[in-house]
Design a protein that fits this description.
3 domains, mainly alpha, about 55% helix, 19 helices, hpI Integrase, Chain A, DNA polymerase, domain 1, three-stranded antiparallel sheet
Length: about 425
């Protein structure tokens, strides 16, 4: 496989004869499969050989690679035949990718602590995670967040929830909340209440102990929705003009967010099987496994097809959208999709108080409302459980609000 990137016999011998030699061809095959360009693959393969010689000179083996030590070595590297790799960030990136490859095939050991040295997760926290996944349909990031909160609560109040009381719960909350900001405090409240409700259902703590967690003064409907104007959306779409895979991908993502009001996580998890071309619909599974079918408009469908025609073939994933640089893989979560929107805003010169994908969800709801779509139908598109949540967008319908606004008496008397 090395012959794909190198032709000189001496270089091939150099790469295969070093400590990294037994694994270098497999690493080259991985780079080719993941779609790396020839130039990048050459740099990474040189870095792999360089790392192997460094580890050998340190009297170690590939089983215990120390990337931090290798990074320090690069600052003053004078190794023979390392031209093009000294003090080059590609060398460190290549070494990291090579080490990840060795981890996958069982040659290298992880830097993480062994199971014997890691603190054991409380049994209740582990069962709480299973309950959240099975009965609440919570996403993995939410499960990890709630489980950390549960473990922290048990460390503070003890492993036996039957001995907890309202005073201890409240004191723990007040101590933790003093070190947090508003958004984090709200998450703390939600995670604590969810854990104690789970414990109460299992009969492991007092009933209604979750009510001991104080409420946080935050009015969800106090602010106006943050949305973009039609001109700003048009500017973002225009910024996606072009035939490159990246531009086509960005256009499809933007239209899904701005026209259908999808969340960033919905777009990241969208699979080819979710698109029903015959019926012109899109199957979306959002929070708590709440699944709906949305109409796939001609504009959005054309944008998705245009991207699929040039979508990187190196990745065989069923996910629709992939990273635009090697390795071509699906987005891990909605954060990658939100980053796409932020880059589009910067490219289009759109300046708004809020950046990210959720502004486009607000924009979609606002546009539907201005075109006379009832709140109930807007709620169906946005997958809201109650009309009260959708009513948040009624504040921006100025035309309708003027019809019910009452005259200000003090103004009339002037």
């Amino acid at each position: 496989m090395l012959e794909t990137y190198f032709s000189a016999p001496k270089m091939l011998e150099h790469l295969r004869s070093g400590p990294s030699g037994p694994y270098i061809d497999g690493f080259a095959a991985l780079l080719r499969r993941d779609g790396y360009s020839s130039g990048t693959a050459v740099r990474y393969l040189r870095a792999a050989a360089h790392l192997g010689h460094f580890v050998h000179e340190q009297g170690r083996t590939l089983a215990d690679i120390d990337l931090s030590a290798f990074g320090g070595h690069l600052q003053t590297c004078r190794c023979p035949r390392s031209a093009g790799g000294r003090r080059n960030h590609h060398t460190l990136f290549g070494a990291k990718h090579f080490r990840d490859f060795l981890l996958k095939i069982g040659v290298c050991q992880s830097d993480n602590a062994t199971p014997e040295t890691q603190p054991a997760e409380p049994e209740l926290a582990a069962s709480f995670k299973q309950w959240l996944r099975k009965h609440r349909g919570a996403a993995d990031p939410t499960i990890r967040l709630y489980a950390r909160g549960a473990a922290s609560l048990m460390m503070a109040l003890g492993d036996d929830p039957s001995l907890w009381d309202a005073k201890g719960v409240r004191e723990y909350f007040m101590e933790r909340s003093d070190q947090m900001r508003g958004g984090s405090v709200e998450k703390l409240i939600t995670s604590m209440r969810a854990f104690m409700r789970y414990l109460a259902v299992e009969g492991k703590c007092q009933a209604d102990l979750d009510k001991a967690v104080p409420a946080y003064a935050s009015w969800r409907l106090a602010e106006l929705p943050r949305y973009l104007t039609a001109e700003q959306v048009d500017s973002l779409i225009a910024a996606c003009d072009g035939a490159s895979p990246g531009r086509r991908r960005d256009r499809a993502i933007l239209l899904l967010l701005a026209r259908l009001g999808l969340r960033a996580g919905d777009v990241a998890q969208l699979c080819l099987a979710d698109i029903e071309w015959e019926t012109g619909s899109l199957r979306v599974c959002g929070k708590s496994r709440y699944q709906v079918r949305l109409p796939l408009t001609q504009e959005v469908g054309d944008a998705i097809i245009a991207y699929l025609e040039c979508r990187p073939s190196a990745c065989q994933s069923d996910h629709v959208f992939l990273r635009n640089i090697a390795p071509y893989r699906p987005f891990l979560n909605g954060g990658g999709v939100s980053s796409v929107v932020k880059h589009l805003m910067k490219r289009a010169g759109v300046v708004t108080p809020v950046k990210g994908s959720h502004a486009l969800r607000h924009t979609a709801a606002t546009e539907m409302l201005r075109h006379g779509v009832p709140l109930e139908k807007i709620g169906l598109v946005l997958r809201h459980r109650g009309v009260d949540t959708t009513a948040y967008y009624a504040k921006v319908d100025v035309t309708q609000l003027k019809q019910i606004a009452q005259p200000w008496r003090e103004a009339l008397s002037c």
